[in-house]
Amino acid sequence: MSAVADSYERSQSPFVESLTRLKKNKTALAGAVIIISFVLMAIFAPMIAPHDPIEQSLYSKLKPPFWYDNGSLDYPLGTDDFGRDILSRIIYGARISMVVGLVSVSIALLFGTVLGAVAGYYRGRIDNVIMRFMDLLLAFPSILLAIVIVAFVGPSLKNAMIAIGIVSIPRYARLVRGSVMEEHAKDYVQSARALGATDARLLFIHILPNCLAPIIVQTTLGFGSAILEAAALSFLGLGAQPPTPEWGAMLANGRALILRAWWAVTFPGFMILLAVLGFNLLGDGLRDALDPRLRE
Q: Which stretches are transmembrane (predicted)?
């Protein structure tokens, strides 16, 4: 039976075969469930959140979670030092984190793919100029470079997203360059060139579609990195500004309360951990599913 199943799997299209392998990966499915949960939370935040995330109530400040004696179901996860509901701020924080990941990764993906594709296709002097600039960016720790960029242009969530996108460009550029160089030497590219295909058509119609597997994996992993870096910038006061309900900013606001109100720090930190874990699990599963060399 196993031989028949293996033969049937090999007869399927590459997309269906990859999807079948992905469904068998339990860690990838767990990551997908986590990500879908956060996406739904972000979309339906106004319907799910029990309170306005920036509404203050000094009479309700530092209320503990509901399972404590003086807790209340009106504030299931407690409140912060301004009386704001932690659960509502966490729910709305998912919306901000998903947007940060989407914008930052889109910037890095767009510019990194174009630069890497051009460098890998034309090589020579163009390749040297582009890749030496990428090496210059990689010489700095990404979070340190993002801090420098945000400090220069001014602290805000918008500038933080742009900075994270810029520091992530080299990862995509190097990845795409290697994939393009590998595909460029294959016979189908030479055949298309012999038929009169232009450089633009060869690069964007024939070569890049065959480089999608590693790009998809890197994009998924990049979401987790972007969320983590955005939280770090907000924690330092360079990202989302008060009273924006962003997880990193919530950590910064609650760090002085950690001994009196542990819930003000623990729950936002756990959300960051869970979101990054979900994207990393899905990215690892996609790598196993899309790379034919990793078949069992």
A: 28-49, 96-121, 133-154, 261-283
The answer on pLDDT for 269 being more than 70 is yes
CA distance 38 to 44: 10
> Which CATH homologous superfamily contains domain 26-46+77-290?
MetI-like (1.10.3720.10)
**Per-residue CA distances from 150 to 98, 147, 191, 239 (Å):** 20, 5, 47, 8
Q: Which of 263, 232, 260 is nearest to 246 (CA)?
A: 232
Q: How many CB atoms neighbour CB 151 within 10 A?
A: 13
Contacts of 268 (CB under 8 A, 6+ apart): 86, 89, 90, 93, 247, 248, 250, 251, 254
DSSP string, 141-161: -HHHHHHHHHHHH-SSHHHHH
Residue range 205-231, pLDDT digits in tens: 888 888 888 898 899 999 999 999 999
Q: Give the whole-angstrom CA distance, residue 121 versus residue 210.
A: 14
pTM: 0.87
* CB crowding 3-39: b at 16 or more within 10 Å, else e: eeeeeeeeeeeeeebbeebbeebeebeebbebbeebe
- Over residues 235-247, the pLDDT tens digits come to 999 998 888 999 9
DSSP 46-75: HHH-SS-TT---GGGTTPPPTTSTT--TTS
Residue with tokens 């890095």: 108
- On whether the CB atoms of residues 163 and 154 are closer than 8 A, the answer is no
Please report, as a single letter, which amino acid is at residue 186.
K
